[in-house]
Amino acid sequence: MITLGKYNKLTILEKTENGLILKDNTNEKVLLPTKYCPKKYELKSVIEVFIYHDNKGKKIATTQKPKLERYQFALLQVVTLTKVGAFLNWGLDKDLLVPFGEQKEDMIEGRWYVVYLDVDESTNRLFASSYIEKQLQNINITVKEGQEVELLVYQKTDLGYVVIINNEHKGLVYKNEVFTDINIGDALKGYVKKIREDKNIDISLQPIGYRKFNDVNCNLILTKLSENNRFLPISDKSSPDKIYDSLGISKKAFKKAIGFLYKQKVISIEENGIKLLSTKNNNQ
């Protein structure tokens, strides 16, 4: 079955005046309109397309890339307000509707909101919702302490930043453990610090196994290393401008911090940058 709101790999069946007819392995068919067709293709070859719906609620294919898929979350901007709801730019020519009943607060044109993509089973139409927490569950936890996870920041509170974990759970990054700029809608890598008895999940932006340092620049560098696959292409030989552009600190502060981290055997200083070492000799 061709799945609405998802990428599907379909076979090119035939060319018509309106575009290409595609089919899946159950022989369900869908149109890929001419304006989305690749310049070169072969009949019976496989093409990957995103499936959404036209104005009549009928499935239709596109080679455009949406900013989220069904059952996923993303930060999107309101482009139009109408009598049926707010429409968001999600990367397709046809904007995405947030019905009034799916708006946690009245949306304002031009503003950005974290939303969830779902489908109305009765009308077979995709829609977005800003009721984020009802789509998350912390009853059946699928992550473990120390595990690296994907995060999406969706709310700021007095305690810190509330995040979506692996598109499924709710977690919290405490503000006193944040050493870099974070904004609503940021997609980050993080680590499960603690799963509490009440099923709340504490998240760290630094790999578990590294203790926190008193120096804010050391923690900033550790966070940036974590976000960039344990490597930063800057060193004590880099220009002050490059260091500031990367970290927002002076070269003098950078050299002091990496010197300390190096002596603590937390990082290695390579010819073209700095690298985060194994956690086996470091304690939280």
TrEMBL record:
Q: Which residues form the S1 motif domain?
A: 146-206
Which Pfam families is this protein grouped with?
S1_2 (PF13509), WHD_CvfB (PF17783)
Report the superkingdom from the record.
Answer: Bacteria
InterPro entries found in the cross-reference section:
CvfB_fam (IPR014464), CvfB_S1_st (IPR039566), CvfB_WH (IPR040764), NA-bd_OB-fold (IPR012340), S1_domain (IPR003029), WH-like_DNA-bd_sf (IPR036388)
User: Which PROSITE patterns does the entry link to?
Assistant: S1
For this UniProt entry, the molecular function terms from Gene Ontology, in alphabetical order, are: nucleic acid binding
Gene3D superfamilies (alphabetical)? Nucleic acid-binding proteins, Winged helix-like DNA-binding domain superfamily/Winged helix DNA-binding domain
Family named by the database record: Belongs to the CvfB family.
Protein name (record):
GntR family transcriptional regulator
Instruction: Tell me the organism.
Output: Aureibaculum marinum
